[in-house]
Every structure is written in C-alpha cells, then in structure tokens.
Amino acid sequence: MRKILLIIFLGSCFNISAQELESEFEELGTNMWLSSYNKFRIGEKLYWAAEMHYRRIGNSENPFVDRMAQIYNRHGLNYVVSPNFNFTVGGVFRLNFTPEQNNPEYDPLYIEPRIWHQYLFVLPFPRFMLYNRIRIEHRWKRGAAVTNDEFKFGNRWRYNFYMKIPINGDKLKPGTFYVSPSMELIMQSGKNIVGSFVEDLRLYGNIGYIASPRVSSSFGLMYTTGQNLNDPTLYKRRIILRLSTYISLDFRKEEQKIPTIKLSD
C-alpha cells in the first residue's frame, strides 16, 4: 500500500512540474520584409555580396505594415571554391526602431553590429537545386531602453535547408517560374542566454521568377516561432510577407567576362 501511495505522490509531483513548464504561445504577430540580394563579380572566383533589408511590423488594427522594425545592410566577400561550394565573410550594420513610438523611455533608433561568415553547399539534381547553408553571426545586441541597456555579445548559429524547383520547365533558366520551400533553424548563445537557445524556427515557401541571368525575384509567406529571451517556456509567433529581388552584375573588364552568371544564391 505504501508503494502505491509513493507512486501516486511521485506521479502527482511530475504532473505538476510538467504543467509548470508547459509551453505557451504569444499572440500571432505580422511583419513585412522587403529585401534586395545583390552579387557583384570582381574576380574570377570572387564576388562582393551586398544585401539591403527593409522590415515593418504590424498590429491588430494595421497588420504587416504598421510601423518600422529594422533596416540593415549586410555586406561580405564571397569566394566560389567550386560550383558546389562557396563561402562568405563580412559585416552587418543593422538599425532597430523603437518598439513604442513617442515613448521617451525608449531610444527612437539604436544599432546592432554583427560579423558573419557563411558556408553554402549546392547539390544539383536533374530537375531541381538543393542547398544547405550554414551561417554563423557574432553580434553586439542591446535593448531599446534609454538607460541601463548595454551591448551584450552573443552568437547566432543558423542552418538553412532550401530547394529551387522549376514550375514551367525542367531547368532554372531565364523565363522560368520556380517554387522554393525552405526551413531554417536559428540557435543563439551568450552570457545572457539562459534556456532560450531556440531564437527562431522559420518555415518559408515562395514563388520566384528568373527574368534574366542577372535579375530574378520572389514572393512568399513565412511562419516563424522561437523562445522568448526572458521566458524559455513562452514562444513568439509571426507570419511574414516577403518580397525579394536578386541582382547579379559583373564588374570585371569586358575581356574578362564570361557569358553566363550563376543564377542561384
């Protein structure tokens, strides 16, 4: 009888503990991201990668576009080791806008600098392309409060798996529409990270069009979820509209140029 009572007691304690740690979700947020991904060829295997990102955040009354969220530039030198592997090293200058407009307790604008390096593995198949991307970011991040909000150093560990599948043809070439499913897991680490290691899980699907060897674009919808920094059991959620353009130019001398430029990321 004592054993039975002990089992019931331990089971009750475990159930209470599990209920206390049960995950909860924040209200679903909405965002809009406009992006420009640019590659400029400056050598036989060397590119200058330049990205521009414009992001807005919505609310219940004005979804997706209510106020500014971030603007940032990401730049780097990209070296193509082979058609199946390339890596990039560079920096990011990100501008964050206040979470509450006209609130004197928050800075209207504050920066978040980063250093990043990326490794892209490309697997070509007869009818589609498959990509594995590893990106590591070292960042100096602070909150929006005017006082007592110092920069804290941390790292982001990102793995992105995505595909590009032609819709109206059998190859990715000019005049082709394509669909691109994507999954990215973003982990974070640092002295101020306690339990909230999953910063973001991003599930993204988009439809793109290749206008020429140098210009393409895509439009899609992304769902994200990740742990709240101050409460690991609380998960934020977002639906994000994304519109992106991709431009690739050759800055070398005319006699050094080749006829085609890589269409993929």
Describe this structure in words.
Mean pLDDT is 90; it is low at 3-10, 13-19 and 258-264. The radius of gyration is 22 Å and the shape is globular. With 265 residues, it is mainly beta. It is 7% helix and 61% strand. The protein contains one helix and twelve strands. An eleven-stranded mixed barrel has the order 2-3-4-5-6-7-8-9-10-11-12. The protein has one domain: Porin. It has one helix at 2-20; strands at 24-25, 29-41, 46-57, 67-82, 85-97, 109-124, 129-141, 152-166, 177-190, 198-210, 215-228, 231-250. This is DUF2490 domain-containing protein. Pfam families: DUF2490.
List the helices and strands and how they pair.
Blueprint lengths: L1 H19 L3 E2 L3 E13 L4 E12 L9 E16 L2 E13 L11 E16 L4 E13 L10 E15 L10 E14 L7 E13 L4 E14 L2 E20 L15
Parallel strand pairs: 1-12, 2-12
Antiparallel strand pairs: 2-3, 3-4, 4-5, 5-6, 6-7, 7-8, 8-9, 9-10, 10-11, 11-12
